[in-house]
Amino acid sequence: MKLFKKFKSCCLLLSISLFTLTAYAKEVRVGLAVDQLFESRVAENNAIKAAAKKRGFQIIEVVADGDAQTQNAQIQSLISQRVDAILVCAVDQNTINGALMRAQRAGIPVIAYDRKLPNERFYQAYVGPDSVQDGFMAGQHMAKKLKNETGQVLVLELLGALNDQNGIDRSKGFKEALKVLPNVKIISVPTDWDSAKALSATQNAFQANPSIKAVFAATDTQIPSIETVLIGLDKAHPVGHPEHIVITGVNGSNDGYQATKKGFADGIVVMNLDEIGERSISLAEKLIKRQKVSKNHVVAGDFYSSENIADNKSKIWGASE
């Protein structure tokens, strides 16, 4: 009996070894299904590609340009090409459910990145920004700047898209941080991440409420729109000026970096896209090896103020001259 058990154990170890050797005898190919390309998504995808290159993995990238039907077909194509894992940033989960189920049946692990899928049955792991914490850090810095204000303090919040969990979570964290100031009243306006809408919303808000003391931008790419409005109102005073309007945001784009560096904005939270890229590929690697992984992985960003952002330029994913 003992000899039989020993033989069984040896067979199991041999099977695992053979599987591992087979998995790496060929080049590992990872499908990257992208919702659409814009500044931060390109930087995020580049981080994923760098992490894959480090391991010798091949990335097969497909971009849906915001079309859910196109993404559904692209994922099915990746399954037909028998990729070893699929990373997906979904345009709309309801439309790609069928393709994700086919990936499951084909034994291809799916990792959702940046945007969490509402139905956990269709993916093995998620990795993305900790948007609640990112919004909280931006709000926390604003609260410090406003703590000596007396009377009612009006704050304008430029929301992202109301159907985007990252936008919803940034708002949640931001509002939570400002709860330490009971005299603050937040005016929230949706922008759908659109800078033109942000400009219009800022103009309307300041026209109706000229005493607004601070503005939070769910994405720092909208800070130039805020600046345009404040210049027109002769309110674009730098940090330290007695009539300065406090500005914070989240993202890490060059717009946010430049505005903070010159002192128009007080500070921004910079998403850690390198870490998101590294974790995405690390999770894919483990799942390909049939290793167990936990479901949710969120990565908080880092806050940089007008005092230290220039010294930390190398850590700002979007910073350029």
Automatic annotation (TrEMBL):
InterPro entries: Peripla_BP_I (IPR028082), SBP_2_dom (IPR025997). Residues 45-291 form the Periplasmic binding protein domain. Transmembrane segments: none annotated. It is found in: Cell envelope. It comes from the Bacteria. Keywords: Plasmid, Signal. Residues 1-25 form the signal peptide. PANTHER family: D-ALLOSE-BINDING PERIPLASMIC PROTEIN-RELATED (PTHR46847), GALACTOFURANOSE-BINDING PROTEIN YTFQ (PTHR46847:SF3). Belongs to the bacterial solute-binding protein 2 family. This is Sugar ABC transporter substrate-binding protein. It comes from Catenovulum adriaticum.
